[in-house]
Amino acid sequence: MTEEEGRPAPRRVRIDHRQVRALAHPLRTRLVGALRVKGPATATALAELLDTNTGATSYHLRQLAEVGLVVEEPDRGTGRQRWWRAAHDVTSWENTDFDDDPDARAAVEWIQAEQVRLFIEHTERWFAVRDQWSPQWRDAFGMSDAFMTIPATRLTALQAELWQILERYRAEADPGEPGAEQVQIFLASFPLLLGAKR
Fold this sequence. Notes:
The protein is mostly helical. It has a domain at about 10-135: Arc Repressor Mutant, subunit A. The protein has helices at about 15-25, 25-40, 45-50, 55-65, 100-130, 135-140, 150-170; strands spanning about 10-15, 40, 70, 85, 90. Helix 1 (about 15-25) crosses helix 5 and helix 2 (about 25-40) crosses helix 4 (about 55-65). The longest helix is centred in the middle third of the chain and has 28 residues, at about 100-130.
């Protein structure tokens, strides 16, 4: 539990070789994301939400369950209806975790490329509807960037500190608060590749 709120701390996993290979699939990444955002659901509800078929959804949920990324909620099920939930709130890895496994490294590279693709898709959908949002929300949403010269150790510390701030805000969040909306915050850092490659 978090000390300030008395709420459970986010469930975390640093994914292993099997998990990263299982997660490197478009529908599987979307299933885990949907379960984290929307909460427990059946394969039928997830198929409807993600515009796919129930058979494929059930199959991929079982694949995710085999490696511990989703779990069944047997108390909710009735008859053949199975409910699933994400086993973790936060998935993490280090880029070097899979240097000894070319398949897992390729899976991580695919997952990261898919995250960028989804970010672009999400941004385009926002641009298409932003005029429907209030001025307050349009001002609250946005993107920015910063340039700095910094060693790897300090960049790691900076990202950890930013993550702590995001975690604090998430712990303090009240879904019932008037005017509250679900938002997605992306945190990324890349080298400024203007000159020769190191």
